[in-house]
């Protein structure tokens, strides 16, 4: 039938037009290289065998390949020295109005303390053993007694990061925590806009910190999901959704094919919209998922100049930036053994 031929011709023309509109090779070559975000500095990865019913998620860990604990000064310093471009930290207010760097809402899982972090003074948090609750190989506690005083203040974390940029994650949902963080940043002499820092977390504190620092990178999970979902639909027509203006787009490694114009055309569109792009690991979860294997870097296009979220900074960061790799042979051997165990558990 003639109308079927017309329909087929129209569909072919539409396909050709969309192909040209989204052709990555027709876009300008992006400037710069991928930038790695070391999640919580260097930290212990959860044991893949730990089930969803684990009472303290994150504290049942793999056999440790190193002795760094998340959100601690040592961890931040080492991630920065290995070459991480940015370090993501968890921040929480204390009972005496300071900002502690700690990821859980309560102290019961990771430390020898109990109760909400926000109900304790900074001095009380400093008295705790931050490695008390980590459990590996059944009932062994490899870090118990090794990390008393390791919960840092914001100022200590900033000094530990050196020239690395910081991404502050609000652990609470109260907008007032943004004001407390801004005050702590001012007291520490840190201008987050000039330093290239960013913020993420729940909508309320993110909105408030955006009002305080309108030129800073700030995003919530909901806002990133809105940008990502809208672009996956509208991007094929060359449209940058309103949700992506000044926003954040997340691209899972296993779904790169679903993003129109990936990589160069998409990058050009997002740069024009003032948006950031973060590559994350496959899978789903409440928090951003980071790379856990050096070989995952090979799945990222060479022209990509945005961010990659990294969970195993001890192996992934040196795999990309080997000129700063100061790991000893023993550390490298232990890290490789951990990688092999993790690959086998997939």
UniProtKB/TrEMBL annotation:
Gene3D superfamilies attached to this UniProt entry: Phosphatidylinositol (PI) phosphodiesterase
Residues covered by the GP-PDE domain: 34-346
UniProt-recorded name of the protein: Glycerophosphodiester phosphodiesterase family protein
Cited InterPro entries: GP_PDE_dom, PLC-like_Pdiesterase_TIM-brl
SUPFAM superfamilies according to UniProt: PLC-like phosphodiesterases
Coiled coil spans: none
Segments crossing the lipid bilayer: none
């Amino acid at each position: 039938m003639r109308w079927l031929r017309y329909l087929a011709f129209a569909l072919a023309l539409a396909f050709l037009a969309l192909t040209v509109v989204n052709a990555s090779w027709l876009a300008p070559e992006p400037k710069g290289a991928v930038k790695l975000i070391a999640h919580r500095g260097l930290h212990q990865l959860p044991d893949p065998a730990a089930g969803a019913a684990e009472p303290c998620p994150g504290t049942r860990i793999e056999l440790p390949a190193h002795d760094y604990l998340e959100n601690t000064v040592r961890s931040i310093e080492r991630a920065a020295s290995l070459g991480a471009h940015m370090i993501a930290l968890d921040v929480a207010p204390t009972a005496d109005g300071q900002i502690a760097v700690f990821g859980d809402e309560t102290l019961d899982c990771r430390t020898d303390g109990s109760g909400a972090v926000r109900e304790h003074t900074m001095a009380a948090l400093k008295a705790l053993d931050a490695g008390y609750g980590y459990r590996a190989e059944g009932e062994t506690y490899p870090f118990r007694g090794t990390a008393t005083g390791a919960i840092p203040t914001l100022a200590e974390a900033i000094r530990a990061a050196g020239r690395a940029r910081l991404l502050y994650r609000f652990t609470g949902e109260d907008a007032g925590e943004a004001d407390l963080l801004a005050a702590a940043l001012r007291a520490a002499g840190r201008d987050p806009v000039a330093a290239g820092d960013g913020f993420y977390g729940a909508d309320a504190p993110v909105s408030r910190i955006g009002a305080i620092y309108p030129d800073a990178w700030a995003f919530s999970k909901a806002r990133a999901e809105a940008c990502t979902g809208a672009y996956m639909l509208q991007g094929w027509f060359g449209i940058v959704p309103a949700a992506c203006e000044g926003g954040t787009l997340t691209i899972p490694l296993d779904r790169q094919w679903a993003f129109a114009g990936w990589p160069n055309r998409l990058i050009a569109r997002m740069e024009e919209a003032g948006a950031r792009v973060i590559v994350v690991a496959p899978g789903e979860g409440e928090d951003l998922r980071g790379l856990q294997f050096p070989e995952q870097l090979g799945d990222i296009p060479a022209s990509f100049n945005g961010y990659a979220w990294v969970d195993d900074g001890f192996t992934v960061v040196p795999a990309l930036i080997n000129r700063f790799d100061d790991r000893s042979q023993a550390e490298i051997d232990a890290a490789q053994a951990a990688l092999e165990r993790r690959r086998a558990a997939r």
